[in-house]
Amino acid sequence: MRSFWDSFIMLFIVLDSIGNIPIFYSLTSNMEESSRKKVFAESIIVASALLIFFALFGYSFFQYYNVTFMDFKIAGGLLLLLISLEGLIGRVEAETLRSEDVAIVPMATPLLAGPGSIYVVMYLSTVYGVLPTLLSIALNTIIAYFILVGSNHIIQKIGKNTILVLARIFSLLLAVLAVSMIRSGLEDALRQVLKGS
């Protein structure tokens, strides 16, 4: 139980489902309620699959393809930056978005199953074992789904105009997060180069 509890808490903090609520809503704000729930469900399923995969085969995958966490950070950051810039300048209209446009990228990855959560499940699998890690992934992703679905009723009461303003604000915050991920990845790469020289 201690192993499960520790792994659950650590993954819950890294997934940050509550912190992702505004960003997720801004990406789906003009969708119908049923479509929004479908997008949330798809993103949770894909994120769960990714986390389970990396919990079981993460180290083997990284070694085989010679991929590093800094690669994940830089690629995920660039992806988020492009999406946030489109949101800021208003080029992405929800009417033109299909559920698969946002459910997998950026919602499932890199927002939920990003470099941080991937690293954590690999770490948890090594330290606490596979079973506690898989249980914590299952429980955390179920909780994340209900948090996201339940948040719609609260945010909808704010009003459409307020949502439009918030969408721009959170697109800016998403851009900041993206730049932070890119910077962190580049710093890791620079440290590795300096260490090797």
UniProtKB/TrEMBL annotation:
TM ranges: 6-27, 39-62, 74-90, 102-124, 130-150, 162-182
PANTHER family: UPF0056 MEMBRANE PROTEIN YHCE
Species whose genome carries this gene: Infirmifilum uzonense
InterPro entries registered for this protein in UniProt: Multi_antbiot-R_MarC
Subcellular location, principal: membrane
Pfam families named among the record's database cross-references: MarC
Membrane-topology annotation of the record: Multi-pass membrane protein
UniProt keyword annotations, A-Z: Cell membrane, Membrane, Transmembrane, Transmembrane helix
Presence of keyword Cell membrane: yes
Family, per entry: Belongs to the UPF0056 (MarC) family.
Protein name: UPF0056 membrane protein
Keyword Transmembrane helix: yes
